[in-house]
Design brief:
Radius of gyration of chain B: 22 Å
Order of helices and strands of chain A: HEEEEEHEEEEHHE
Number of helices of chain B: 5
Oligomer: heterodimer
Distance between the termini of chain A: 54 Å
Strand order of the largest sheet of chain B: 3-4-5-9-8-7-6
Shape of chain B: globular
Radius of gyration of chain A: 21 Å
Strand content of chain A: 25-35%
Structural class of chain A: alpha+beta
Largest interface: A-B, 17 and 16 residues
Number of strands of chain A: 10
Strand content of chain B: 35-45%
Number of helices of chain A: 4
């Protein structure tokens, strides 16, 4: 009897472990054509039509299905684009991509009408395989977390940008940070 | 005579020969390392380390392959012997902010032309981009350059450190005849180049 009880406990413990191991995933990996970078977004995200394009006319967007592409989204949307040109890239030129090449948000000498653009944060990314910049900006109703990463091996540039209303942005700071720091390079 | 006695007699002789051999060992290479430790390489021992003025660089070294070495050779355009210039350049914040990988190639020429651009006075023998496991990245290039009616050959390697705060560069140049005669030594120098991250202060 004692032996049977031990067996039953062991089976239940095994089942519990197996269940935990097979728990529903909370994130999925996404990427864009021409990039070795992989990012993690919530599993409920899907590919959506959304038109922000810092680099080229190409790109891909992930967000909550049904997100209105004509307005600033009320849930974070990840827009990814990739292109070549890392050999001509500098920290400054990467920051300029955040304004479509119009100006460097960090340079007070850039004589442009930046409207009500606010810089919320700036950081540089330096690893043996990657270098780049990350900027948090508020513009009008929108808040955006912009990241441009250069793959040292290929010199390709990948931009990952999360955007939504400022209220949404403030509510989802942790999620946005998790997505932006989740990148890995595919071998 | 027994074998053991023979061994005892011979042993000091063999050891003596080894010691004498060791004393007469000639060093094959000279070694150089930048002041911050980020750049090092070796060069033929019969070449001479000459003192150069660092001017705008953090650190500079000159290695002259001439029998009569001189710092003046660093400024001479067409040399009959190889001359190595190695430098570590610190980038001021504004320069660092705007520096690009492509610009590193322009350090190879004093007039800041890019050796890879279409220029009939420059013929590229090889070019490769570099990135190591730490994140040092840059260019390694060898090219012929027509100069004052003669042709020199130059080999140039320049990299950014991973954070792009410094540039490490090594340049060797001399006349085409000189370069081709010394290719093995020059290639050995470039093979030996090592980069290391600066120690945190």
């Amino acid at each position: 009897m004692n032996r049977q009880r031990h067996t039953a406990v062991a089976v239940m413990a095994g089942l519990a472990l197996a269940t935990a191991g097979c728990g529903a995933p909370t994130a999925q990996e996404v990427s864009t054509d021409g990039s070795r970078f992989r990012f993690e977004v919530p599993v409920e995200y899907g590919q959506i039509e959304f038109g922000i394009d810092p680099l080229t006319a190409q790109g891909v967007a992930y967000g909550t299905p049904g997100t209105d592409s004509a307005d600033v989204p009320s849930d974070p949307v990840l827009v990814m684009t990739a292109g070549s040109g890392g050999e001509a890239a500098s920290f400054r030129s990467l920051r300029e991509l955040s304004t479509g090449g119009a100006f460097d948000p960090l340079d007070p000498g850039d004589d442009v009408d930046a409207g009500n653009l606010q810089i919320l944060g700036y950081d540089e990314i330096i690893t043996p395989e990657v270098w780049g910049v990350r900027l948090q900006l508020a513009l009008g109703r929108a808040g955006t977390d912009f990241q441009a990463l250069v793959d040292r091996r290929s010199d390709d540039i990948t931009v990952s940008q999360l955007i939504c209303t400022q209220a949404c942005f403030n509510d989802h700071l942790d999620l946005i940070d998790e997505v932006q720091t989740s990148w890995r390079l595919e071998e | 005579m027994s074998t053991s006695r023979l061994i005892r007699l011979l042993l000091p002789t063999v050891l003596g020969a080894m010691i004498i051999g060791g004393c007469s060992f000639e060093q094959e290479f000279g070694y150089v390392q930048s002041a911050d430790g980020t750049l090092s390489f070796r060069y033929p021992a019969d070449w001479t380390d000459v003192q150069l003025d660092p001017v705008a660089s953090e650190w500079v070294a000159g290695i002259d392959g001439a029998a009569v070495p001189s710092a003046d050779n660093a400024e001479t355009l067409v040399l009959d012997n190889p001359f190595v210039v190695a430098q570590v350049l610190a980038l001021e914040p504004q320069l660092r902010d705007q520096a690009t990988l492509g610009q590193l190639r322009q350090l190879a020429l004093t007039d800041q032309r890019d050796p890879l651009t279409d220029d009939p006075t420059i013929r590229v023998r090889f070019h490769q981009t570099l990135v190591d496991e730490v994140g040092f990245e840059g260019h390694h290039i060898r090219f012929e350059l027509d100069l004052e009616g003669q042709t020199i050959v130059e080999e140039h390697l320049a990299v950014f450190d991973p954070e792009r705060t410094t540039v490490q560069r090594v340049r060797v140049a001399c006349s085409m005849t000189c370069f081709d005669e010394n290719t093995d030594s020059i290639e050995e120098i470039f093979r030996s180049i090592a980069f290391r991250e600066a120690a945190e202060e």
